[in-house]
Amino acid sequence: MNQHAPSSDTIVEVENLGKRYGSLVAVDDVSFNICRGETFALLGPNGAGKSTTIEILEGYRDRTSGTVRVLGVDPQKGGVAWKAQLGIVLQSSAEAAQVTVREQVEQFAAYYDHPRDVEEVIAAVGLTEKAKTRIGKLSGGQRRRVDVALGVIGRPQLLFLDEPTTGFDPEARRHFWELIRSLKADGTTILLTTHYLDEAAQLADRVAVIAAGKLVEIGPVDTIGGAEARVPIVRWRDHAGLHEERTLEPAALAARLLDAAAGEPRDLEIVRPSLEDVYLGLVGAADRNPASARTTTGEPAHV
């Protein structure tokens, strides 16, 4: 079951997608849609099938089965005009180290009929002061901003961001998040892959979790995994050892523990499960029982 039915506002339609390499199943009957203006995160461990799925959507890899439409076109048949509507920011970049930021962006702008203004794009990615600096002299975070500038200069309707902040320090990551939010506010639809679960929680409207080629969950960030996965956990330690209990009333349980102990129990804490906690639970469950894949409705997913 798709999370959204196809409509005029659907940018990406994936139905029963499959990819095999001989006996190896890389993507197994995956279905999802992405709506216009949405930031959609595709999450999963290494080897789960994320990269294969993305490459099929980008038109770089042919599928074995299923149907895919990106901006209304089958990616296997997408021509130059279709590709010009996509922005792609890969994990590794191929900028020329000896040219300046402005020269590189100007070069890419020349590939499009109606590019964005070069100076506006450089300003949007926060590199105005570095416009005359050779790319080889930029920091890793600044070079990543160049990658985004090159990805959006052609006014893409859909922007692919593949692990965009790998190797960033915490401050650089947060600056980059602001850049992505500004692109979303400008109407750009974004498909994000990341191993940083806090990044997905900050940026995505919806997330899909894929494991062993199967879609195991899809939905808004604050609902995946269901209500049970988000029940707070109270942990404490006493003479019998470490304890934990899930409860909808964590403060009341903590108060009872304090009264019973006639003093504060050791290591008392209330943990509210994060997206990372939910994600790890979903992936772990999928590893233990591949047949358990489902959607947020609790019905079997297209997996």
From TrEMBL:
UniProt GO molecular function: ATP binding; ATP hydrolysis activity
Gene3D superfamilies: P-loop containing nucleotide triphosphate hydrolases
Membrane topology: Peripheral membrane protein
TM region positions: none
GO CC term (a single one): plasma membrane
Annotated GO biological process: response to antibiotic
Coiled-coil boundaries: none
Pfam short name (any one): ABC_tran
Record PANTHER family: ABC TRANSPORTER ATP-BINDING PROTEIN
Protein name: ABC-2 type transport system ATP-binding protein
